[in-house]
Design brief:
The protein contains 14 helices and 14 strands. It has 431 residues and is an alpha/beta fold. β7 (200-205), α7 (218-228) and β8 (233-237) form a beta-alpha-beta unit. Bound molecules: pyridoxal-5'-phosphate. The site of pyridoxal-5'-phosphate has 14 residues, from α4.
């Protein structure tokens, strides 16, 4: 067992965090660690312990931490000013690249976070349709805005399509404007859309919901249903954009939505996200293109700042290089398969769910296809497994492994050894 001791400095920082931050944290469910630095596929804590990093800053660090080429263009721009609240070359070129890469993107607007991007995408759908209701999927995560925080992780799920707020402080009126459907169940979703289509402004979905892939035909079915009723379909690609393929999940699964949101990888670790989509919907953000009462202002202090934009542009250039995606998928598949094999050998009921760049284990013997089936898994056991892995020098999010292009063969081998050690301890019931 590797022992990861904390030095006095890290203990002091954690104590200070408890005094000044609610819950002693930045809000994320990261373990009790203060990170000092990251390089490539590794991070180090303040006590000097090294970890193979599958948290990846919750996804943005797709080409690894502090990639030298990204750092070089950022350093160059730092000397030339960090934000202007005005058009700048890097932001214009990044928008052009998104239009080139992402099938649904005819126009792009930048924001600073994925939560803002989904908020604007849903508002654009409402401005376009002139209706109010949003249909989303149980278990789907779209960030922290009021409409998004519905039935993402309900302790007591309501009968479909009733929404359950995931946070205190959300007005009741918002809950009544959100309809909930089961992911991967096109029949139930279709029945809800048929019943409510007159009131629905848009349908928002993670095309790959958390760790759960869409079953064949589900996204196609959603596309057909929404097209039939002229309802904008929004793919939330904050996670999947530029990760599943260069054109995102819409390219990977071959289904083109009307709008999409992008974040994380698109800005290479800086604060930028985007909403992109069909011109007829995006034009509601152009006061010259629509009637005054159909206009939707969209402004943000740091939107399209040149630091994040140039980091994004360089990250995308790196991703476009020959062999990137096959290698990314192959690395992830080796880790994923290794984990499933070791759990099977230990006779621990578990399903490793997801695809190469993004997956995790559910401790259950049953298939995981939607939120309700995912709830049958033993989340306490997953928490214990994650904690054991941290002690073995593998850092990950509470419910995901994010793979980067920087993860090496050595990382894979060490990760598999860490799995072996952690599974051994799980089997003995020690943790
Ligand atoms: C699918 C999805 N949408 C939206 C968001 C929100 O993005 P942000 O954390 O940048 O607000 C996230 C964040 O993890 C996400 O996973």
């Amino acid at each position: 067992m590797a022992h990861r001791e904390k030095n006095p400095r890290e203990r002091e920082l954690l104590a200070k965090a408890n005094r000044v931050l609610p819950g002693g944290s930045l809000g994320n469910p990261a373990p009790d660690i203060v990170i000092d630095r990251g390089m490539g596929s590794h991070v180090w804590d303040v006590s000097g312990n090294e970890y193979i990093d599958y948290l990846l800053g919750s996804g943005p660090m797709l080409v690894g931490h502090a990639h030298p080429e990204v750092m070089a263009v950022v350093a160059e721009q730092l000397e030339r000013g960090t934000t202007f609240f005005a058009a700048n070359e890097h932001a214009i070129l990044l928008a052009e690249e998104i239009v080139r890469a992402v099938p649904c993107a005819e126009k792009v607007r930048f924001v600073s976070t994925g939560s803002e991007a989904t908020l604007y995408a849903m508002r654009a759908a409402r401005a376009f349709r002139g209706r109010d209701k949003i249909l989303k999927f149980e278990g789907g995560f779209h960030g922290m805005n009021d409409y998004a925080l519905m039935s993402m992780s309900p302790a007591n799920p309501a009968p479909y399509p009733e929404a359950v707020p995931d946070s205190a402080g959300i007005p009741r009126a918002v809950r009544d404007q959100v309809l909930i459907a089961p992911f991967n169940d096109i029949e139930t979703t279709s029945a809800i859309i048929e019943r409510h289509h007159e009131d629905i402004a848009g349908v928002i979905v993670e095309p790959f919901q958390r760790m759960i892939p869409p079953v064949p035909g589900f996204l196609q079915g959603l596309r057909e249903l929404t097209e039939h009723h002229h309802i904008p379909l929004i793919f939330d690609e904050v996670v999947t954009g530029f990760r599943f393929s260069y054109g995102g999940a819409q390219e990977y699964y071959g289904v083109t939505p009307d709008l999409c949101t992008l974040g994380k990888a698109v800005a290479g670790g800086f604060a930028l996200a985007a909403v992109a989509g069909k011109e007829e919907i995006m034009s509601h953000m152009d006061s010259g293109a629509v009637e005054p009462d159909a206009f939707m202002p969209q402004i943000g202090t740091l939107s399209g700042n040149p630091i994040a934009a140039v980091a994004g542009l360089k990250t995308l250039e790196i991703l476009r290089r020959e062999g990137t995606y096959p290698r990314l998928f192959a690395t992830g598949e080796r880790i994923k398969d290794g984990l499933q094999r070791l759990l099977d050998e230990a006779e621990i009921p578990a399903k490793v769910v997801g695809i190469g760049p993004l997956f995790d284990v559910f401790f259950t013997g049953s298939d995981v296809t939607d939120f309700r089936s995912s709830q049958k898994a033993d989340s306490a056991l997953l928490g214990r497994f994650n904690a054991l892995l941290t002690r073995e020098g593998v850092l990950k999010g509470s419910t995901k492994y994010y793979i980067s292009t920087a993860h090496s063969d050595d990382d894979v081998a060490q990760t598999i050894s860490a799995f072996e050690a952690a599974i051994d301890q799980l089997s003995r019931g020690s943790c």
